[in-house]
User: Fold Putative alpha-L-fucosidase from Tetranychus urticae.
Amino acid sequence: MSQFVGLLVLLCSIGIQTSAVPNTKYEPTWDSIDSRPLPSWYDDSKIGIFIHWGLFSVPAFKSEWFWYYWQNNKEDDCVQYMEKNFKPNFTYPEFAPSFTAKHYNPDYWASVFNASGAKYVVLTTKHHEGFTLWPSKTSWNWNAMDVGPKRDLVGELATAIRKTDLRFGLYHSLFEWFNPLFLLDQANNYTTNFYSHGKTVPELYDIVNTYKPEVIWSDGDQGAPDAYWTARDFIAWLYNESPVKDTVVINDRWGDGIMCNHGGFLTCDDRYLPGTLQKRKWENAMTIDKNSWGYVRTSTINDYLTNQEVISTLVKTVSYGGNMLINIGPTAEGTLPPVMEERLRQMGNWLAVNGQAIYNTQPWVYQNDSLTENIYYTEPKISEIPTVYAILLDWPKSNLINLGSLYGKFKSTQVQMISPDGSLIDLTWYNDVDKKFRINLKPVISDLYGWVLKITNPIIRK
Ligand SMILES: *[C@@H]1O[C@H](CO)[C@@H](O)[C@H](O)[C@H]1NC(C)=O
Ligand SMILES: *[C@@H]1O[C@H](CO)[C@@H](O)[C@H](O)[C@H]1NC(C)=O
Ligand SMILES: *[C@@H]1O[C@H](CO)[C@@H](O)[C@H](O)[C@H]1NC(C)=O
Ligand SMILES: *[C@@H]1O[C@H](CO)[C@@H](O)[C@H](O)[C@H]1NC(C)=O
Assistant:
C-alpha cells in the first residue's frame, strides 16, 4: 500500500471530511450541482442557530415582514402601530439610527451558541428590507457601517464564532421588497438584470470572499427564474473555485421551482418537518418565537416554544434524517432576549447528557413508535456493536414502555438509560405477548425533556 493510499484509508476510517471528489469540476447545471456529495460535517452536526437581525428589530412588532405589511395593507396592525407610536410620515429608513447594536457582544453570543450544543450558526446578512449587516459596496448608505451601528456586524460575529468549534454560515435574501431596480426587472418579466447583476449577485460573491461562510442560506427568489439570479453560475463557482469550495453547504432557495428540488440540503418550507424519511438531506428551519423570525417586543411566554417542545422538535427532526436550524431574534441593541438564551442553554444541557443519540447519527430502519409511545429512534453512524437509541419524549405513568418496532429483534440485548449525570442505568426487558417489547423503566427524579435508552445488539438490523 502506498503512503498515499494508506493516508486516504486512515482519513476515511477516522471519518475525516471527504466532501467533493478531488478535481471534480461542477457545471452550472442542476444535475451537476445536485451530484456533489454534501460535506459530511453538515449531516453530523444536526443543529444550527439561525439569527434574524436587521432594521425590523427596531419596531420589533408582528414580524420581520413589518415594513411590507405596513406598506401593503392599510388595515394592518403595523399601520396602527406606526400611527400610535411615531410621528406622521415617519419612513422605514428612519429606524436605522435606532438600530444601535450598542450592547452587541459577539463573543457572548458565541459562548451562548456554543453552550446550546449547536454546531453551526447562520446570520442574516440582508433580509428582504435590503439593509445589509456588513459594509456592502452595492448598498450605499443602507448598511450597518454607514448608518446605525457603524460596525461590521457580520465580520465581528465571524471572528467570534471562529474562536469556537462552530461553523459560520450566512443567510442572504436575493430580492428586496422595495428596491426600484428589482421592481423594474420584475416589471420587465426578468428580461433585464439591473438589480440581479448590479446589486444582489455581486453581494453573494462579496460575502463569500470576505467572510468565507460554510453555509449559504439563500432566500427570497420571489418566483424569479434561477437564470435571473445567475444561481447556477454562482453555485458552480462556489463549488469549484471559492475559498470554501470543499466545505460549503447550500440550501435550495435559488429560483422559481428550485426549492425542495435542487441545491444542497432541502428546506422545502419554513418549519419543514415531513414525518417520513426523505431521499435527500433536509433541514427544519424553525423559530423559538412561534410567530416570528425577527424579535417581537409584544410576544409573551405563550408565544415561545417550551423547552419540551424544542427538544421534541429536535428529536423528531433528527429521527427522520433532518437538521434543525433553530432561530432567535436579537434586539436592536444587540442583546439576546433572555427567554431565547434560556431555551438555547437548556437544549445544550440536554445535549450534554444525551448528545450521543443526536450527533453523528442516522435514521434507524424504524423512525418511531408513536402509535403506542412518544418514542423516536436514531442509530449511531459508527459504533463498535450495533446500537439503537430510543428517545422517550413522555414518561409513562406505569414506568413500563412497549417498543413495538423492537419486538423479536433482540436477543443478547442490553437496554440502558442515560441518567442525568451521564451514567448508564441497566434496565430489564422482555418480549411480551401481542408482539410487545417491554422495558421496565427506573424512574429518574429529574425534570428532563426527553429520556434516551441505549439499546445494544439487535439481531436484525434491516
Ligand atoms: C405628510 O406628507 C403629506 C404628503 O407628502 C403632506 O401633505 C403632509 O403635510 C405631511 N404631514 C406632516 C405632518 O408632515
Ligand atoms: C464550548 O462548549 C464546550 C462544551 O460545553 C466546552 O467544553 C468548550 O470549552 C466551549 N468552548 C468555548 C470556546 O466556549
Ligand atoms: C414572462 O417570462 C416567462 C418565462 O420566460 C414566460 O413564460 C411568460 O409568458 C412571461 N410573461 C409575460 C407576461 O410576458
Ligand atoms: C411514524 O413512522 C411512520 C413510518 O415512518 C410514519 O408513517 C408515521 O407518520 C410516523 N408517526 C409520527 C407521529 O411521526
Notes: The pocket of 2-acetamido-2-deoxy-beta-D-glucopyranose (ligand 4) is lined by residues 275-276, 367-368, 370 (CB under 6 Å).
